[in-house]
Amino acid sequence: MLGAIVGDIIGSAYEFNNTKRKEFHLFTPKSKFTDDTVMTLAVARWLCGDKEHRKETLVRHMQELGRRYPTAGYGGSFMRWLHNPEPQPYNSYGNGSAMRVSPVAFYAHSLQEALGLAKISAEVTHNHPEGIKGAQAIASSIYLARHGATKREIKSYAEEQFHYDLSPQLDDIRPTYSYDMSCQNTVPQALLAFLEGANFEDVIRIAVSLGGDSDTIAAMAGSIAQAFYGIPQNLASYCYALLTPYLRTILNKFEESIGVLTPDPFDIERFIKAQNDDNTYQQALKEILQGHKTSHWIWYIFPQLKGLGHSTYSQYYGLADTDEARTFLANPCLNERLREITNALLIYKDRNIERLMGSSIDALKLKSSMTLFDAISPNDIFSKVLDVFYDGKKDRNTLQIISKTFNGHISNN
Length: 413
Prior knowledge:
Binding site for Mg(2+): 34-36, 213, 215-216
Cofactor: Mg(2+)
Order of helices and strands: HHHHHHHHHHHHHHHHHHHHHHHHH
Protein name: ADP-ribosylglycohydrolase
CATH topology of the largest domain: ADP-ribosylglycohydrolase fold
Keywords: Magnesium, Metal-binding
CATH architecture of the largest domain: Orthogonal Bundle
Number of strands: 0
Structural class: mainly alpha
CATH superfamily of the largest domain: ADP-ribosylation/Crystallin J1
Shape: elongated
Strand content: under 5%
Pfam family, one: DUF1810
Radius of gyration: 23 Å
C-alpha cells in the first residue's frame, strides 16, 4: 500500500495546481500526505487489529485517525461523518472508497476475500453502487498484479467485472479532463495510467499529468503499480520520511503482519554511499583536522532536519525528524564517523566557528545538526560543540520542527 502513499504525496502538490505534462518535479516544498494516506492507514490498522473485520471497528479507526490529522484535506460530507457520534454511510460515489482500499489487496489471501473486504471498507461511507465498484476495481487490480497477472488480464477483468471502458488513450483524454471526484470518472483513469505506464515512476507521472484530482488518481494508480513493479527505493524512503512517526508505526505494523520486511525504510544507506563516494568522509575529516573546511560535504556529514534548506541536497539528505535522526545514529558506521569528526572540531575550541566551517551558512548548518543530535542524545559530545562554539545556544528553527513532530503530531499545512 506504500505505492498509494507515494502517489498521494507526489500528486498532492498538483491537485489544485494541475499540470498536463509528465515532466514535473516529483517532490516540492508543498509535497505532503493527504486524506488519501490517512484513510489508507486507517484501513490498514483495521485489518491488523480486528481479525473479524467488523464495520464498527473500521469506523472507529477512521474517525480516530481522521480527527488526529484534521487538516489532511477531507471533503465536507466526510468531515461531518468524521465528527458524527453516530456516523452512517451517506450514499457517496466519490473516490474516497477507492483511494483508501489498497491495504485489503495486500492483506487478502484470495481474490474473493479482496473483493469482500473492499466492499466492507467502502460501505461505511460510500455505499452507493459506484463507490463500492470503484473500491473493488482497484482492490482486484492490485490483487491480480500481486499474483502475476499481465496487464492484458487485469484490463480484461476490470472491463468484464466492472464494465469500465478502458479503450481510450490518455493522450486523448488529457486535454479536456478536469477535476472530478467520482469513482466513475477517476478509477478508470487510474487504471489507464497503470496500463499505459512503463514502470512505477512513469505510472505516477502519467496519473498526475491528467490533471484533476491528481493526488487520488496517483494514489490509486500507484497502489496497482507497486504490486506490479515494486517501488524505487528513493521514492519509497522519501515518502516514508514525510509521514509522522505515528503513521509510520501503523505502516510498519501492517507490513510486518503481511510478511513484508523493509530493513532500511529511511534509506540511511544513502549517507554511507555519499560519504564513501570519492573518499568524501576522509577528505572532510582531513579538512577539519587541518582547521578549515574547504569542500562541499556538509549535508551528509552533519545532516540537519528536512525543511531547513531549499537545495536539492538539503532535501535529499535532510532528516525527517528525530526518528530518522535516531536511525542515523544507530548505524554503527555513521555513529562512529559523526563522533570522530565532531571530536575533531573540538580540537579548535578557540577558533571562530565560521572560520572553521568555511562560512557563516555552514556554521549555522552545523549548529542545526548539533541541536538535532543533542535532542536525541543529550549530555553527549553534541552539547559540547554547542557549548564551545555557540555559547550553549541551540538552533531555534530545529527545536520548533522537533516540537511540531512530538508524539507524532504534525501540521499538515
